[in-house]
Amino acid sequence: MAGGCVLKIKKIILLIFILLLLTSCSHSQKNEPVQSTYYAMGTVIDFTVFGDQGQEAIEKAKEVIEDLEKKMSLNIKDSEINAINAQAGIGPVQVNADTFQVIEEALYYSQLSQGLFDVTIAPITELWAIGSQSEKVPSQEQIQEKVSLVNYKDIVLDQEKQSVFLKKNAMKIDLGGIAKGYATDQVIAAFEDMGIENALVNMGGNIKVLGLNPQKNQAWKVGLRHPRDTRGSHFAIVNVDKGQSVVTSGDYERFFIEGETRYHHIFDGKTGEPSNSDIIGVTIISEDSMQADALSTTVFLLGSEKGLELMEDLQGVEAIIVTHDLKIITTKGAQDFLQEGKTQL
Amino acid sequence: MVGINFSKNQEDLLYGIIEVNGIEENVINLTQVDQTYTIKIGDNTHYNIIEVNPGSIGFIEATCPDQDCIRMGTLDAPGQISICLPNKVTIRVEKSRQDDDLDSTTY
Question: For a Cys staple, A251 with which of A61, A98, A264, A340, CB 3.0–4.6 Å?
């Protein structure tokens, strides 16, 4: 009898031991990240998160993204953005703090670029419809008609009421050039709140990191996509860590070619046509992903000379510019991020 | 819950690449997918719906007349390709994507 009990206990202990071994072999196994990819905000989103809270952190991130999408997406019928656009020329619309902040920031960059980057560009974007089956080169008449609706100065913000008013009928805001960056910042902030120390988020090409890559014990290695090699090779590598973000704008993301001209999706708010500055791609490194998102478009529109000037004036942000003749121009500080010997077009 | 990933061998990695109009739009690490999701490419008149699964990818809906891309079914091995010619969308599966040991790429 006694012998049987001891055997049973030994079996139970063995079982418990095996169970413990199995459960402890989940992501708390040293330095195995939780990785996840899914589709939201019109793009593919990739998470790589280290730490015991990895899975929960990713679930939280998805909630954050869903919430922001509901507020800021043009594709969601009753989003706050669509509410504002529907009331253009009619009256102000009260919005959430997130939406208000993003619009404020977008306005700031519209001012900074003196209207080249203009958050009210939507009527022009829709006219050209680049990337859709109805993409076309509109007539000058059509462009002029729509470009008259593009003017960030016709946005009225009421800080107290947290409301947004578009003065002219048919004016339209599109937060596409800045919302992804904002979402990226919010996701990383959520990770930090949960005690995550090392992570990398790639939101449709918008990258932000926390800490470093613990598997290699070094900064995260981010490739900058080659602007002309469509098969996805990179022309440079940047090493980023802590809270840095890397965002790129390029004329190769969405475009069509008619005759010998490439018509891409980065529109000049003053002409209503795709920017024809001397830049084909620009990467911004900043700890503020929303800023990087907005600046990448702004610098692209400004061209290499004015763009570089702007970037050297701003603190704590760097730029890597690729010009149409495939030259690489960078801010001085960008060299600290670029991996030596790996930059070439 | 998330699958348990014991090894990150180069050999285990499978990438699904979506090309639109000859340009790579998405490079998805299929090994990293833990829940199936779909991507819609195009607008409401001309579109393709691509299903992304753990370890595989394929067209599941398309507005093209011949539906060849749908017939191609699900791709789950390197070298496989599915093309929707009228809509100019291609899916390719590749084994290894990143040289230089990159953690990610901007685009």
Answer: A264
CA nearest to B94 within chain A: A231
pTM score: 0.82
Q: Are A174 and A17 in contact (CB under 8 A)?
A: no
Q: What are phi and psi of A17, to 5 degrees?
A: -60, -45
From A81-95, A293-307, B2-16, the region with the lowest mean pLDDT = B2-16
* Burial (Cβ within 10 Å: 0-12, 13-18, ≥19) of residue A152: buried
Interface of B with A (CB under 8 A): 1-2, 4-6, 8, 17, 19, 21-24, 26-29, 32-35, 37-39, 42-43, 45-46, 52, 97-98, 100-107
Residue B46: list chain A partners with CB under 8 A: 133
**Count of residues making up chain A:** 345
User: Both tokens of residue B32?
Assistant: 């990293």
Distance from CA of B36 to the nearest CA of A (A): 8
